[in-house]
Amino acid sequence: MRLHSSVFHMAITFPNISATEDTAPVKVAATKRQYPGALVVVEGIDGSGKSTQLYLLKRWLEIGGYRIHFTEWNSSPLVKSATRRGKQRRLLTPTTFSLLHAADFADRCERQILPLLHGGYLVLADRYIYTAFARDAARGCAPRWLRNLYSFAPIPDITFYFRAPLDVAVNRIVAGRPKLKYYEAGMDLGISLDRAESFRIFQERILGNYDQMIESDHFILMDGTVRVNKLQKLMRQIVGERIDLGQFAPKKK
Amino acid sequence: MTRPDKNNGSNAAPNGGTALHAKKKVRPEAPSRFYGTPLPGVKLEELSGTLFVLEGSDGSGRSTQISLLTEWLESEGFAVQTMGLRRSFLVGEDIDALMAENSVTRTTLSLMYSTDFFDQLERRILPALRSGLIVLADRYIFTLIARSAVRGISRDYLHGIYEMALRPDLTFWLNVRPEIAFDREFKKAQTISYWESGRDMSLSNDLFQSFIRYQSLIKREFEYLSKRHGFIELDGEGSVSEVNRVLRKRIASHLGIRSTHYKPSHALSHLWR
User: Fold this and answer.
1) Residue B132 lies in a domain
2) CB spacing of A82 vs B89 below 8 angstroms
3) Is B103 an interface residue toward A (CB < 8 Å)?
4) Section B192-216 average pLDDT
5) Per-residue pLDDT for B239 more than 50?
6) Of A109, B105, B264, B271, which is most buried by a Cβ count within 10 Å?
7) Quick one: pLDDT at residue A75?
8) pLDDT at B266
């Protein structure tokens, strides 16, 4: 495709599957980019500041009139009722939790993200497949199985990993919420009967899983404790360097 | 484990029931009860029940045979649990709703079926097998793999998802020609269903042609799966009583039941033709 600049090639990443537990490699289907769009994702545990930063990036691009679309995890109406039922009644096992979220993601991927990428949009995603890798592995799913499950997903051009110390992140969440939800706090794992304690341990495991993907999945590490506007300036600079924004700019008449 | 001979793999503990089943054949391609990564939290040595799977297209007589086998096994004193597609509490109804819409895409539908399958496996089948029951599955992962594969989803991907499924003790494939399946289905419902004729795949505007083409594609997948997974292939075009006799013989031999005599009760006699 005409838009494959050298910058794009640099950003093409191949997740290092052999780094996980098993020997047999899993084929990753979506490694060759075959669309003119670009995909920027933010990842990180709750309270790491990723959503704020992506919002500000989105505003910057919106105000500039760029062809962008914003998408976030768990927003598909198609599988919402199943997710709600499973969560309310606590029917979900690590496996069905993972599969249901994958079905939800597949819906968004096939009906939003892929058509937009083929249509030449810059797609901004608040959480992506790495959320599932980190979270579901913390629940006990096999990393190799998870990699295969999401192998239909296009690999992002940039993955920003927002990292804040566990205490900072956990305090931001706990302070802002009256009650942590059952699955959110990882109560299904039976780590602790105390919800706040369970949440903390669960987030710690997720954080550890994210950290392990930094190199293999080419994350750009962002320090979530840096002042908001300063961090945003850096984020915009990186996006400008790695993505040819000109191709998403408003067309001159 | 009731069949230690089939579980020579590292994660199977041979214990229990050895005398009864000592002469069973070893399937070298089946060292473990899972195809790959085991399902998290399952202790294989706890599973004392038996899993029999019946596969075959609509119109192959699967459901009829399951009703008859259930009655026969119960009369022999075995407790039976059944499973089938779209029967999970978690997402069974949601799949019905998704299929009624035309907006669902193939990967989403495929993964909803996986969710449905694993929900039943973890919350219905495994508890039954822990209690020593016989599970009769009206279709299993093979139908799910075949349906998605003919829609262009990679077989490796599908096998990767279902590698955490439990390997059945025996898998029967009731093989019928698509034309015969069409006759039987049409007789039953006076029409042919949208999904069973693969109309989402735009194979033909003619319903009969679409059905035949779709079922032929599925059949080709099954021929491959049959070789890979060692199905017991039965002629689904035979009479109900003949197919049932063969099924009983294979199941009885697997369970160590001597007598395979069976005559359906009055309640099921209408199925016996």
Assistant:
1) yes
2) no
3) yes
4) 93
5) yes
6) A109
7) 60
8) 93
Q: pLDDT per residue over A219-238, tens digit each?
A: 999 999 999 999 999 999 99
Query: What's the total number of domains in chain B?
Result: 1
The pTM (predicted TM-score) of the whole model is 0.85
pLDDT score of B236:
95
What is the distance between the alpha carbons of residues B166 and B35, in angstroms, rounded to a whole number? 7
**B239 CB-near residues (< 8 Å, 6+ apart):** B273
**Which B positions 1-30 lie with beta carbon below 8 A of chain A?**
none
Mean of pLDDT over chain B: 87
Q: What are the phi and psi torsion angles at A104 (to 5°)?
A: -65, -45
Residue B233, min C-alpha distance to chain A (Å): 30
For residue B164, give its domain range: 4-22+35-271
Mean pLDDT of B121-146: 97
Cβ–Cβ contact B91 with A under 8 A = yes
| Chain B environment of A149 (Cβ under 8 Å) | 160-161
> What pLDDT score does A26 carry?
46
Kindly state whether A138 is in contact with chain B, defined as any CB-CB distance less than 8 angstroms. Answer: no
pLDDT at residue B2 greater than cutoff 80: no
Residue B199 lies in a domain: yes
Place A96 in a pLDDT band, splitting at 50, 70 and 90. Answer: very high
Using a CB-CB cut-off of 8 Å, the residues of chain A touching B106 are 110
Tell me what percent of the residues of chain B surpass a pLDDT of 70. 89
Whether residue B49 contacts residue B79, with contact meaning beta carbons closer than 8 Å, is answered with: no
Task: Report the gap between the CA of B91 and the closest CA in chain A (Å).
Answer: 6
Q: How far is B74 from chain A (nearest CA, A)?
A: 30
Residues of chain A contacting B111 with CB distance shorter than 8 Å = 99, 102-103, 106
Question: Is B232 within 8 Å of chain A by CB?
Answer: no
The architecture that CATH gives domain A38-245 is 3-Layer(aba) Sandwich (3.40)
